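Input set for joint prediction.
Command: fold jointly, output tokens.
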Amino acid sequence: MIGVPLATLAINADRSEVRAAADWLHEVAHQYEVPQNKAIALDQCLDEVLMNIVMHGGSSATTTPVQLSFALTPKEVAITVSDSGKPFDPVNAPAKPRPMTLEEAEPGGLGLSIIKGLSNHINYEFKNGRNVLTFGVAI
Amino acid sequence: MPIDFKDSDTLRLITIDGRLDSAGSDEIATRFSAMASGAKPSVIVDLSQVSFLSSIGIRLIIQNAKSLQNKGGKMLLVTGDNEHVSGTLESTGISSLVPIFTNIQLAEQAIAG
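tokens >
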């Protein structure tokens, strides 16, 4: 259970709108007295999820707005992101092997590690033609 | 988004301040690459004042660390007591590729060997 959404926001899947989502998140988190370090962890996950949609969601990602919702329970604060981009399940996406040397390091694929490292739970479903991803941080 | 550098004999210290999300990383990318392009063989990047570090920011650091290494140089990172930045670097495994120190003096000592 992630609780009833307390706040929602719609943005376009555009790089220039990602920061507006972060501002919204911090405003709502402050309003509901979410500890700042938890809000930052959510902010980081949200930034990675949105940039993933912007960069890899394909043309269908921009046909409808990306919907964000914020939910809070006594134990967890969670964000749900719904988008019409290419289906992508980050929960079951294979983890990229960690490079052993700088030469081997490819500057990509780090976002998933950040999301999985910072969130306490992550849930994905493809529903009505949309990716619906929820990630939560324990409080 | 502030980015600045200070040189000593063989060392350049680059200080980045602010939010290294996609917009912040785009904003400093050209200046950062120019500053870390090998004018000095050792580059310390101070991230202790960075309030937010995204994978795009980490990519920028890795790209420049690789490019400096290909020129025979070396990049080191300083995180101070910024647990947010050090935790993010740790979660991506970059800490095993680019040396990370808690303060500038320790990074300088590592360079001096």
